[in-house]
Specification:
Largest interface: A-B, 35 and 49 residues
CATH architecture of the largest domain in chain B: 3-Layer(aba) Sandwich
Radius of gyration of chain A: 15 Å
Mean pLDDT of chain A: 79
Order of helices and strands of chain A: HHHHH
Number of helices of chain B: 26
Low-confidence stretches of chain A: 1-27
CATH superfamily of the largest domain in chain B: Thiamin diphosphate (ThDP)-binding fold, Pyr/PP domains
Strand content of chain B: 5-15%
Helix content of chain A: 40-55%
Oligomer: heterodimer
């Protein structure tokens, strides 16, 4: 397995081993700071303002990723430009992560009549 | 006005003298049009054969003595010599209009210019501004893209009139898009070659030794006729070349003196236009391809610039069902109904043992991928043992300077031919060589693909609910709201959804060829708005509801497109995907900043944003006579605003709703 494959594997293992641990207790102010970072670092350009994803980037919210997997995705996976600690510190990345985790679930499909489509 | 009023141009006489005193040129014009109706693309082969080689003028009776007198008379108060200084009785551009009418163009798009003032007048007064009708565009780039969009709906090319110099310079990018997108049109470029007769001033700066040079790298053919007969033959040749696959733009120069000078006693003829039958793949190679496909365990069909019309869609359905093979529609054209269970995502290519590529713009990119990293490495997406069959016209005509092709791929079997034309023989051959056991497996295959298709559609619906209530509005919601408004109508999308996460393709049932027009071709911004107007113009005569999802960045190139829609009464419902910037470039700048570790925080706005001040798109189009609302930021307001706009469109006018949206 090459380096890239190893990193992908690690990320997937971390994601797969994630158990329901409950959202960390964070203050609204902390989420607000994370949101500001999410916006200033322009994560939304590819992932959308609510992390919903699209053709430019995968959906990242609501996330079940542990922070370690999230960090791997941002730093190493080639699914996006590698954001090194020199431009985005672990601390700020964690704040962004906590904000992403705070994004609520969207309405259920059955509650959106306009997505009945055809 | 009386028909014997000799002080007026005899084209005006034509109106009063209709069905009574038909002058020679009018007679020539109508006879030519009638003759070419038989020589149209839809005419029978027998009729075409009969027309071929017979100049239409040969069937026209000579003018009567009375008509000769009428045309040779001088206006009251002038002697013959003076009249020759002031008046032209039979300008060359009238004959040019005869030629143009013979080719059955519906419209000529134009931004007016003095280098073609002669033919401009002839089109209006002699030609009656009918068949073709002039369509006014505030920019040549727009005029070309209107023709581009019109062709993709109707399969009929338009002509476009431009200054040979500044006009073609304005038009160039849009011509390049059309070239890349294999969309034919005939450019008519005004020019004055003879320096001894150029007026001082602008007629010099609007002339060139070789005015088509600026676009020659991305058109199929051009000519600069030096006589009217030369013009007639080159126009018919140009049309024929443009419409022969691989189709593309052509250009013919309109020499100033040919337009404005007397025809005199020239004996002019208009050649019949006999369409070239599109090339079909070699029979032996098609049989070989059929054998590979019929024997394959997992054949996959990939189609891009394939279907010319609904017939092409139905032919592909027939082949796919015969093989029970999934179809990946790359949507250069609407090739395959996305409601059909064999419509599948690009991931199926990885499973294929035989891949059939139909008119692929990028065969290499279908099979491989390249990662955009410091060191750009490539990986094969397809199985190592997968064999690739290519059918298409790429190898039949190409140019070298502009790289309107992709990386070379050595297909295992490469068949030169128009794919739509080749499909019936391929399907017949597949059915002929398919073994009984293979045929027996089709039921299981169908079941498998139906399940996969259903899963994919459910996944798309589920993905659309994320950010449903977000502001800015999610692009999924934008398309869902629009769909709920129009789902019971005969609708047609006249824009591409590639920059909106392909939500139309994922959420809407797209079954008709005319419901989706594909890409711009060269990815040059400034295509979207005018191509949508061209598409909407084509749909108008069919009574279809034209829908345009308009990007803000694209719109800012050619906002005058909306004026053309208002001026010519072209109904079209536009909703914007307004993300206040050049979003693709945001991401590129982010990527560069991250790669160079120079910081990302906020810098991506520089050079990419369309805000500060925010652009009020609704006000822009409102100022051009289009009903408009917006900007709308509340997702719950989107549907009601669209409904109000639709009532305007139903009354036959364009309407516009500006919606502030998520980036993609």
């Amino acid at each position: 397995m090459d380096k890239l494959g190893t990193m992908h594997f690690c990320a997937l293992v971390l994601i797969g081993s994630w158990s329901v641990m409950g959202v960390a207790q964070e203050s609204a102010a902390d989420f607000s700071e994370g949101r500001a970072l999410f916006e200033s670092y322009q994560c939304w350009q590819c992932h959308g303002y609510q992390g919903q994803g699209g053709s430019a980037g995968v959906r990242i919210a609501p996330t079940i990723y542990p922070f370690e997997a999230f960090l791997q995705l941002v730093r190493h996976t080639n699914l996006m430009p590698a954001y090194s600690p020199n431009v985005l510190s672990d601390e700020n990345l964690r704040r962004i992560y906590e904000y992403v985790r705070s994004i609520p679930e969207p309405p259920a499909l059955e509650d959106i009549q306009k997505l009945s489509l055809y | 006005m009386k028909s014997d009023d000799k002080s007026q141009p005899d084209t005006i006489q034509k109106e009063d003298s209709e069905n009574t005193n038909v002058n020679r040129r009018e007679f020539l014009s109508s006879a030519t049009a009638a003759g070419l109706a038989a020589a149209s693309l839809g005419a029978s082969k027998q009729a075409l054969t009969q027309e071929a080689g017979q100049p239409l003028v040969a069937a026209i009776a000579p003018p009567s003595a009375a008509q000769e007198v009428m045309e040779s008379d001088v206006p009251p108060g002038y002697d013959a010599k003076e009249a020759q200084e002031y008046f032209v009785k039979n300008p060359g551009s009238d004959f040019m209009v005869d030629v143009i009418k013979s080719l059955d163009f519906d419209y000529i798009t134009t931004n007016p210019g003095s280098s073609f003032r002669g033919i401009h007048e002839s089109l209006v007064n002699y030609g009656g501004n009918r068949a073709p009708e002039l369509l006014t565009s505030p920019h040549e780039e727009q005029a070309i893209a209107i023709a581009h969009g019109y062709f993709k709906v109707t399969g009929r090319p338009l002509a476009m009139l431009a200054h040979g110099t500044v006009g073609l310079q304005h038009a160039a990018m849009a011509v390049y898009n059309a070239w890349c997108d294999r969309s034919p049109m005939v450019l008519l470029a005004g020019n004055h070659m003879d320096i001894t007769s150029r007026r001082p001033g602008v007629e010099w700066s609007h002339s060139a030794q070789d005015c088509v040079r600026v676009i020659r790298d991305y058109i199929k053919w051009d000519d600069s006729p030096v006589s009217l007969q030369h013009f007639a033959e080159s126009m018919v040749r140009a049309y024929k070349i443009a419409m022969t696959p691989p189709m593309g733009p052509v250009a013919v120069v309109l020499e100033g003196h040919l337009q404005e000078d007397e025809v005199g006693d020239q004996q002019l003829q208009i050649p019949a236009m006999t369409p070239t039958q599109p090339p079909s793949g070699d029979a032996g190679a098609v049989e070989e391809a059929a054998l590979w496909l019929a024997e394959a365990e997992n054949p996959v069909i990939v189609a891009d610039l394939m279907a010319h019309d609904q017939e092409g869609v139905e032919r592909l359905v027939a082949l796919a069902e015969a093989l029970q093979a999934p179809v990946v529609n790359q949507f250069g054209r609407m090739n395959f109904p996305n409601t059909h269970y064999l419509s599948q995502g690009a991931n199926v290519v990885a499973q294929a043992d035989v891949i059939l590529g139909l008119e692929l713009y990028d065969t290499w990119g279908t099979i491989n991928t390249m990662r955009d990293r410091v060191h750009r490495d490539t990986q094969r997406k397809a199985r190592p043992d997968a064999r690739v069959i290519s059918i298409g016209v790429n190898d039949l005509f190409m140019k070298s300077n502009y790289q309107s092709f992709q990386r070379y791929y050595s297909s295992d079997l490469s068949i030169a031919g128009d794919a739509q034309t080749t499909l019936p023989s391929l399907t017949e051959a597949v059915q002929s060589v398919m073994s009984g056991s293979r045929r027996m497996s089709n039921g299981e295959r169908e079941e498998r693909w139906r399940a996969a298709h259903t899963r994919a559609r459910e996944q798309a619906r589920d993905a659309a609910r994320y950010a449903w209530n977000a502001s800015p509005v999610s692009t999924a919601r934008l398309y869902a709201e629009l769909w709920n408004l129009v789902k019971d109508r005969d609708w047609a999308l006249v824009s591409d959804d590639g920059m909106q996460s392909r939500w139309a393709r994922r959420l809407w049932p797209i079954e008709k060829h005319y419901q989706f027009l594909g890409r711009s071709g060269g990815a040059g911004l400034g295509y979207g708005a005018p191509a949508a107007v061209g598409g909407a113009l084509a749909h108008r005569s069919e009574g279809r509801l034209a829908l345009n999802v308009q990007r803000d960045g694209d719109m800012m190139y050619v906002p005058g497109s909306f004026w053309t829609a208002a001026h010519h009464g072209i109904p079209m419902l536009t909703v914007t995907h307004n993300n206040q910037g050049y979003h693709q470039e945001f991401m590129h700048l982010q990527k560069m900043s991250a790669r160079r570790q120079r910081g990302i925080d906020g810098s991506s706005w520089v050079g990419n944003e369309l805000r500060n001040p925010d652009i009020n798109l609704a006000k822009i189009v409102e100022g051009m006579g289009v009903w408009a609302e917006g900007p709308i930021t509340d997702p719950s307001e989107v549907g009601p605003a669209m409904a109000r706009a639709l009532s305007v469109v139903d009354a036959g006018e364009p309407a516009f709703v500006d919606v502030r949206c998520q980036p993609r």
